[in-house]
Design a protein that fits this description.
Blueprint (H helix, E strand, L loop, with lengths): L7 E5 L2 H14 L9 E6 L16 H8 L3 H7 L3 E3 L1 E5 L9 E5 L11 H7 L6 H5 L2 H6 L19 E3 L2 H14 L4 E4 L2 E7 L3 E7 L3 E3 L3 E4 L6 H6 L5 E2 L8 E8 L11 E6 L2 E7 L3 E8 L6 H15 L11 E4 L3 E2 L4 E2 L2 E3 L5 E2 L6 H16 L8 H27 L6 H7 L6 H10 L18 H10 L16 H21 L3 H11 L5
Helix pairs in contact: 1-7, 1-10, 10-11
């Protein structure tokens, strides 16, 4: 029986995908101990990482804690700051006062009070997120999600991070190799040996010869060296739903050391796409994501230059300095085939709206770790469950991202084309019709660990002016006294936090100088 035991995993590719996967597997399966799983990561010295994935999801603090990286080291070494959600500017009409929030804090429990009742009872003109949640006000004031005395990974408001992606990969590499027992081979894979029955039998590397494992994890990015080139697993194209296929990325340094650090990712709609604006400690990461069917690269650079002139006037960077990145929104419906699992961009990539890339790495690596079979000949149930889960998740991400476009009232052709119902998914079309009569519900999203639950859909729907018809009969959770009590609780917490929280800059400066209390 020992001959069939899964004892050795080889991960091909570094970057965030490779090293985060290695960290989760190594910490869970005792790779640093003689009785644990052996994990080898092959990282090419000739392939740079993409390096623009700077926004994360609220799962990352738990992941860092899980693999043993303390938050103080992470903040210091990754130029990181705290993120509490996303702000969308200009997505509805493009007017100067057109913005809404998708915060990380959920509205009050819908079993207790109807969020729509809270919104309808708020003063006229109050945006939905501000009516049901304290966090947009915290973001607008540039406040941090915790106090200076709050320990690592604890918080008073749900949060994720903005980070420097290459620095994060460096931190993970050092931690995995020095603390978690991951073996690093700095080498190139020059040949992949496959069998019709089992998938990959061995890899040949340039300097270290042949290497065999029981399971191979493909973290080679869009090249998909194992899952795509070797095994020929095709991708499912999503470009008919999500049009963007280009990005211009640039870094803009702050003009002074004490410049405020925004508490959210800001996405600003432009003529043929949108600009991300991510605030780190020493700089901002800015990029224009757009559709080559609706503009050309030169026009996009000009639009980005106008954005930089308006939003980063003290910076000397221009649109001509930006790096052009080409991509296609697509994913593999079967990312685990035979003894190969794809994680990261080799599994799939869709446009970077709502920072889904790193959380999909976390979820993939966590599920591989949690369901990893003991024996090679019992791998099929794990494969089946993994493929079902991630095919579902990619489809739901596409639905959610498309939602951000279909309700826009902007008149440019790019936005008009998104409103064409022929480009909508069947599921999203059905849900939008349903939501005209009832709000999004947890019953609409029934899988465990939904990336975007009903509350996320509600923030986008009602942030963009969607209307759900009021009910003609009343329920307990619609009653005025219940609504008033919850509204008062939200305002009370909001006032308390605005008065007691440091700014994002103040907290980051404290961490750099003195650190956070250990958990």
């Amino acid at each position: 029986m020992s001959d069939n035991t899964i004892k050795h995993i080889v991960i091909v590719g570094g970057g965030t995908a490779g090293w985060l996967t290695a960290g989760i597997l190594a910490s869970d399966h005792r790779a640093a101990h003689e009785d644990g799983l052996r994990i080898t990561l092959i990282e090419s010295p000739n392939i740079p990482i993409l390096g623009v994935g700077e926004g994360t999801w609220p799962s990352l603090p738990d992941t860092l804690h899980r693999i043993g990286i303390n938050e103080t080291d992470f903040i210091r070494e990754c130029n990181a700051s705290f993120k509490q959600g996303s702000r969308f500017d200009g997505w509805v009409t493009g007017a100067s006062d057109d913005f809404y929030f998708h915060p990380f804090e959920a509205p009050p429990n819908s079993d207790d009070v109807d969020p729509l009742a809270l919104w309808r009872a708020a003063p006229a003109g109050t945006p939905f997120a501000q009516a049901v949640n304290f966090q947009p006000a915290v973001c607008l004031e540039g406040k941090a999600p915790k106090q200076i005395v709050t320990p690592e990974f604890a918080a008073v408001a749900n949060y994720a991070y903005h980070l420097d992606a290459p620095a994060f990969a460096d931190l993970l590499r050092g931690h995995c190799t020095k603390q978690l027992g991951v073996r690093l081979l700095t080498d190139d894979v020059v040949e992949i040996h496959t069998t019709e029955k089992d998938g990959i039998s061995a890899l040949t590397t340039k300097d270290n010869g042949d290497l065999a494992a029981d399971l191979y994890i493909d973290c080679t990015g869009s090249k998909a060296l194992l899952i795509g080139e070797a095994l020929g697993v095709e991708t499912k194209d999503a470009s008919d739903v999500l049009f963007n296929d280009r990005a211009l990325a640039i870094q803009a340094p702050y003009s002074k050391n004490d410049e405020p650090i925004a508490s959210q990712t800001t996405g600003t709609a432009l003529r043929a796409g949108w600009v991300w604006d991510i605030a780190l400690q020493t700089r901002r990461g800015i990029g224009y994501v757009y559709s080559s069917r609706h503009t050309n690269d030169d026009e996009a650079r000009s639009e980005l230059a106008e954005y930089l002139k308006a939003k980063a006037p003290d910076s000397d960077v221009t649109g001509s300095d930006a790096r052009l990145i080409k991509f296609r929104s697509a994913y593999r419906q079967t990312p685990w085939v035979d003894n190969v699992v794809a994680v990261g961009m080799s599994q799939g990539f869709v446009e970077p709206l709502e920072a889904s890339a790193i959380v999909m790495i976390e979820l993939s690596a966590t599920m591989i770790s949690d369901i990893l079979p003991a024996r090679c000949d019992t791998m099929e149930p794990a494969r089946r469950r993994f493929n079902e889960r991630f095919s579902y998740r990619w489809a739901r991400i596409i639905d959610f991202l498309k939602l951000h476009y279909v309700l826009s009232q902007r008149t440019e052709q790019y936005w008009a084309d998104h409103r064409d119902m022929a480009t909508w998914t069947d599921r999203l079309t059905g849900l939008l019709e349903q939501w005209r009569h009832e709000p999004p519900s947890r019953e609409d999203f029934t899988q465990a660990l939904e990336i975007f639950p009903a509350a996320s859909y509600a923030y986008v729907l009602y942030g963009m002016g969607f209307e759900t018809a009021p009910r003609q009969t009343w329920r307990r959770k619609d009653m005025a006294e219940i609504v008033t009590q919850h509204a008062n609780d939200i305002r009370s917490k909001q006032n308390k936090l605005l008065g007691g929280l440091p700014t994002n800059r103040e907290l980051v400066d404290h961490i750099n100088a003195r650190g956070l209390s250990a958990v």
